[in-house]
């Protein structure tokens, strides 16, 4: 993998930083590029005192260059666990992983440490939710970025340090040379997340996994960071996996969406289409339950109950105890039979027994 | 940074002042008469008691004693010993009641023995304790981890005088594989090797604590987000563990190290006694037995000063370890 | 939704020129300086009986400090907090006690705000005992409370760890309601909850509000949640209210640039459904430190309209003529803005036509 320093001039980050006036947002459909990541039948299990925790089950998806895939779910849905498996970050002694994770042609499941080390940061990098705890408090920001560069490039420390400053500039941090010599606690929340992104992109990876990158940030800063991620993706052409619980964030930046519930994928498709016309009852209910800032609402639609324990998953479809339309499925299979993830319409897959989800769910809004 | 150190030093000085006052009050303003205690019950004559009182200064009002005492510490003073005045230079800790030697000098000749023992002990418990603790933390939950934790708990809860006695018995008496303690005047080489036996057993006893501190601290930092970030950079596991996790794990250990060192430097009573090391601890026990008040007071004062000084050093060390401390 | 309380009744709560400074020490260069964090700086608002006022803003805007002052978890530096006409801002603890019963707080984190070693029954009966309520019938009352918040009354002997996050928040709500309060200060009550559970808790709060005739100060950073739950909204920035009005004002005809930026930045469900807003505003940088807030208008460093006057003169929070909204001053229904160059923008949120 080449690791050419990116020329700092005409970087998109500068446009973001300079854009203070109102601007129009144009969402353009990203072309479907080469598959960087292909996950097939991934299962991740952790032992616990109560029994095995089925964190991820039968997960299949792919990420393509130039596209952003959003993995959406609540806490315990398996969205973070599955993406940490991509970098082989689960301790093999404390987890059981089966299935296949092909990262740029390399099998990650069962891979040895030296292969994982070569791929981490270089082929796939990860940025985390809370940049304050994700950056080491004792080391200067610049040296933390340089360390990742040095791990994959045989260059001098000076060159790596320069590269770190370039990266900080690229992500729109003013005074990058001075900032590189500061510690994480001297950065503001937004600047810290920018530094984290700089760290993620320092080796020009083909895949960037962003795990709740804006959850710890204020909304006005969140918007900046999302714009930055979008702009950098356009520039680098990498694949981005965005892990989030916030459907608003998905709508802002994603091309594709994968909705997870209790460790399994329940709906997959183009983000725009899924959000406009969800087909899985869970996705539908989630969208219905969000209060809006653009219209008044009297009573919010709710999903009864709470997400299930991953140790004692419900029989059949994991969502059935909370599902509001399970009575509409003929033959009542929901409590006994786990539905397969199947193609429900072109470009869309759902894990649901409903044969005509859209019409059933449309009636649900009215009732 | 300089300001931080200066501030900490200033705080240390003020704590020291409080300590000085407290020790003084402890010995001279208490309900019991120190002169009576020193005089002993059997051979005490009124003449002797008077002499002791005069030498200690307890025949004068407390306020006056107090100023004398501090004057002695600050610029030196004259003290009556057996009826004759003797000059005691600053910082004056008085004269041994038994031998007439100046307390300061008596402590100064013994301190190197205690200090060398403390340093050797530290070298042992830090290397053994931290490396074992890190190993256990990395293999958390395995048989090795459980074994290490269990052994350190059992070994650490055996009283040190038993372990010390057994160790001394087996290594220097029954099977003399380790040399016995020799005075510095017998040459630095024999002196040094003579300290190995007490240092080993003391080091191992202390190591049991450090195994557990280091393990707990390491388990905590290995779960931190920044360790996950470090791992996701593709650097070697060695670097992840030592450069990222261990450095952060060490800062809580440093605090305990400071206090332990203060304790070791002010003399280990039992171990020094068992191995015959002529250090502060053994000296303190002897003077206790002899009711040699000026020396007891001197050793107590040294202990307190060491705690304050070690705390200052810990604070400064902390500011080098953790950049966040420099600002607060 | 609750009925508009109107202006006839005297306000339940009047907050006037509320100020809360915190002293901090920090090292600057080679010297140690004592600084003050101006967490809340001259905040004024009223709350009518049965009304809900939302406080919205980013972290560090002072909204949580306001709530802590209202419940007197903090003593204000200056200013008045009049509850039913009585100033509680500096009231000593003893005289405050009976009023504490009437003003209760619901916290953000349902995990850390409940004592894990107490059963639900103990958690609920403690406030009853402290205030001498339901004497001898604490258990029955606790079960009643559990039922009120939609939990099984038989679970009274369980510990908080046996409940899910949403259920724990219900326990927190039950605890606040135990002493029959009049005013609830809710500090981000749903933001720590899973998305699928948020709506349940929101609906529960709405139901309790109308059933028990509660008044609310509701703090949140989610503009959708605020719009759903509140009658009036105060937008805060760096310790000051920059815009205050009923929700039609704030969401329909926002005039302060910060309100507009906030509305524009917040991902909205209708944008999610594919109805994009006509216009978008992106702010630069993070909010400045409340230790040394900018001179004049505090928002000017991030404002695209800022001119010289903004740096020299602090804009007062006042009604802006020509705003286009038919607000009548003094009715408790006014729309006030602290900006030198206010301008209505109603194109920032998705236009919903249904």
Automatic annotation (TrEMBL), chain B:
Ranges annotated as spanning the membrane: 115-137, 158-178, 190-211, 253-275, 295-321
A Gene Ontology biological process term: transmembrane transport
One GO cellular component term: plasma membrane
Pfam families documented for this protein: BPD_transp_1 (PF00528), BPD_transp_1_N (PF19300)
InterPro entries per the UniProt record, alphabetical: BPD_transp_1_N (IPR045621), MetI-like (IPR000515), MetI-like_sf (IPR035906)
Topology relative to the membrane: Multi-pass membrane protein
Lineage: superkingdom: Bacteria
UniProt subcellular location: Cell membrane
ABC transmembrane type-1 domain mapped to chain residues: 111-318
Family: Belongs to the binding-protein-dependent transport system permease family.
Keyword set, alphabetical order: Cell membrane, Membrane, Transmembrane, Transmembrane helix, Transport
Name of this protein: ABC transporter permease
Automatic annotation (TrEMBL), chain C:
Residue ranges annotated for the ABC transporter domain, each copy included: 13-263
Pfam families (alphabetical): ABC_tran, oligo_HPY
Keyword terms, alphabetized: ATP-binding, Nucleotide-binding, Transport
GO biological process, one term: transmembrane transport
GO molecular function, a single term: ATP hydrolysis activity
Listed InterPro entries: AAA+_ATPase, ABC_transp_ATP-bind, ABC_transporter-like_ATP-bd, ABC_transporter-like_CS, Oligopep_ABC_C, P-loop_NTPase
Leader peptide range in chain numbering: none
Family membership noted in the UniProt record: Belongs to the ABC transporter superfamily.
Name used for this protein in its record: Dipeptide ABC transporter ATP-binding protein
Source species taxonomy: Bacteria, Bacillati, Actinomycetota, Actinomycetes, Micrococcales
């Amino acid at each position: 993998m080449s690791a050419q320093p990116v020329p700092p001039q005409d970087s998109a980050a500068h446009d973001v930083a300079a854009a203070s006036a109102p601007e129009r947002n144009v969402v353009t459909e990203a072309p479907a590029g080469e598959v960087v990541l292909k996950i097939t039948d991934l299962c991740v299990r952790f032992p616990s005192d109560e029994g095995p925790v089925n964190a991820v089950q039968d997960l299949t998806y792919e990420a393509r260059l130039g596209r952003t895939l959003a993995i959406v779910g609540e806490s315990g849905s398996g969205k973070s666990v599955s993406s940490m498996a991509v970098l082989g970050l689960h301790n093999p002694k404390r987890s059981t992983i089966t299935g296949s994770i092909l990262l740029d042609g390399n099998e990650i499941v069962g891979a040895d440490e030296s292969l994982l080390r070569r791929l981490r940061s270089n082929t796939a990098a990860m940025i985390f939710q809370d940049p304050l705890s994700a950056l080491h408090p004792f080391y200067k920001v610049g040296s933390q970025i340089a360390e990742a560069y040095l791990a994959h490039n045989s260059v001098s420390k000076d060159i790596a340090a320069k590269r770190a400053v370039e990266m900080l500039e690229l992500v729109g941090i003013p005074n990058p040379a001075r900032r590189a010599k500061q510690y994480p606690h001297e950065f503001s929340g937004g600047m810290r997340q920018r530094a984290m992104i700089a760290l993620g992109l320092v080796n020009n990876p083909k895949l960037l996994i962003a795990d709740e990158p804006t959850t710890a940030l204020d909304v006005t800063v969140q918007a900046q960071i999302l714009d930055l991620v979008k702009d950098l993706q356009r520039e680098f052409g990498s694949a981005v996996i965005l892990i989030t619980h916030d459907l608003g964030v998905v709508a802002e930046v994603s091309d594709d969406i994968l909705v997870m519930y209790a460790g399994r994928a329940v709906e997959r498709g183009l983000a725009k289409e899924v959000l406009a016309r969800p087909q899985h009852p869970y996705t539908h209910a989630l969208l219905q339950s969000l209060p809006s800032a653009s219209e008044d609402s009297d009573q919010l639609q709710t999903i009864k109950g709470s997400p299930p324990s991953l140790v004692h998953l419900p029989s059949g479809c994991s969502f059935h105890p909370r599902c509001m339309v399970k009575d509409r499925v003929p033959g009542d299979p929901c409590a006994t039979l786990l539905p397969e993830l199947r193609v429900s319409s072109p470009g869309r897959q759902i894990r649901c027994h409903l044969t005509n989800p859209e019409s059933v769910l449309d009636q649900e809004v009215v009732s | 940074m300089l300001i931080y150190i200066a501030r900490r030093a200033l705080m240390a000085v003020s704590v020291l002042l409080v300590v000085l006052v407290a020790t003084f009050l402890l010995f001279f303003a208490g309900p019991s008469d120190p002169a009576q205690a020193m005089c002993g019950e059997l051979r005490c004559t009124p003449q002797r008691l008077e002499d002791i009182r005069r030498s200690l200064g307890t025949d004068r009002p407390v306020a006056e004693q107090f100023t004398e005492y501090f004057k002695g510490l600050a610029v030196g003073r004259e003290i009556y010993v057996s009826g004759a005045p003797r000059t005691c230079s600053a910082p004056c800790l008085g004269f041994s009641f038994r031998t007439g030697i100046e307390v300061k000098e008596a402590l100064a000749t013994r301190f190197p023995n205690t200090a060398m023992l403390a340093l050797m002990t530290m070298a042992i418990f830090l290397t053994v304790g931290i490396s074992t603790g890190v190993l256990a933390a990395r293999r958390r939950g395995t048989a090795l981890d459980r074994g290490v934790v269990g052994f350190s708990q059992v070994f650490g809860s055996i009283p040190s005088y038993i372990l010390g006695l057994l160790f001394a018995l087996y290594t220097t008496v029954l099977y003399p594989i380790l040399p016995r303690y020799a005075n510095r005047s017998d040459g630095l080489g024999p002196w040094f090797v003579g300290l190995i036996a007490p240092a080993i057993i003391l080091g191992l006893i202390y190591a049991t604590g450090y195994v557990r501190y280091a393990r707990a601290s390491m388990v905590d930092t290995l779960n931190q987000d920044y360790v996950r970030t470090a791992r996701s950079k593709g650097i070697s596991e060695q670097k992840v563990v030592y450069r990222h996790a261990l450095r952060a794990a060490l800062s809580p250990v440093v605090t305990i190290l400071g206090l332990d060192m203060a304790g070791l430097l002010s003399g280990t009573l039992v171990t020094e006694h068992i191995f015959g090391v002529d250090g502060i601890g053994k000296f303190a026990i002897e003077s206790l037995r002899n009711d040699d008040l000026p020396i007891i007071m001197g050793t107590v004062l040294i202990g307190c000063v060491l705690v304050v000084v070690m705390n200052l050093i810990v604070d400064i060390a902390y500011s080098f370890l953790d950049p966040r401390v420099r600002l607060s | 939704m609750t009925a508009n309380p109107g202006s006839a009744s005297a306000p339940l709560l009047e907050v006037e020129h509320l100020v809360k400074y915190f002293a901090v020490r920090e090292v600057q260069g080679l010297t140690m300086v004592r600084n003050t964090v101006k967490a809340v700086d001259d905040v004024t608002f009223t709350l009518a009986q049965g009304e809900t006022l939302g406080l919205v803003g980013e972290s560090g805007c002072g909204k949580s400090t306001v709530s802590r002052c209202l419940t007197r978890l903090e003593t204000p530096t200056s200013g008045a907090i009049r509850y039913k006409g009585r100033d509680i801002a500096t009231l000593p603890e003893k005289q405050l006690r009976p009023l504490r019963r009437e003003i209760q707080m619901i916290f953000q984190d349902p995990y850390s705000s409940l004592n894990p070693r107490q059963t639900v029954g103990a958690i609920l009966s403690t406030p009853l005992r402290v205030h001498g309520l339901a004497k001898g019938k604490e258990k029955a009352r606790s079960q009643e409370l559990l039922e009120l918040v939609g939990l099984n009354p038989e679970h009274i002997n369980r510990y908080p760890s046996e409940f899910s996050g949403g259920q724990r928040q219900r326990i927190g709500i039950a605890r606040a309601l135990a002493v029959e309060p009049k005013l609830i200060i809710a500090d981000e009550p749903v933001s720590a909850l899973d998305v699928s559970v948020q709506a349940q808790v929101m609906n529960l709060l709405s139901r309790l509000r109308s059933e028990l005739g509660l008044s609310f100060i509701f703090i949140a950073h989610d503009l959708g949640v605020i719009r759903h739950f509140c009658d009036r909204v105060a937008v805060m920035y760096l310790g000051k209210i920059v815009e205050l009005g009923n929700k039609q004002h704030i969401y329909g005809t926002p005039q302060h640039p910060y309100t507009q930026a906030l509305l524009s930045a917040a991902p909205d469900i209708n944008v999610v459904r594919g109805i994009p807003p006509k216009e978008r505003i992106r702010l630069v940088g993070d909010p400045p430190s409340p230790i040394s807030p900018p001179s004049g208008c505090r928002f000017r460093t991030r404002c695209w309209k800022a001119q010289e006057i903004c740096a020299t003169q602090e804009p007062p929070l006042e009604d802006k003529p020509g705003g286009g909204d038919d607000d009548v001053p003094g009715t408790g229904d006014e729309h006030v803005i602290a900006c030198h160059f206010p301008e209505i923008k109603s194109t920032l949120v998705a236009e919903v036509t249904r």
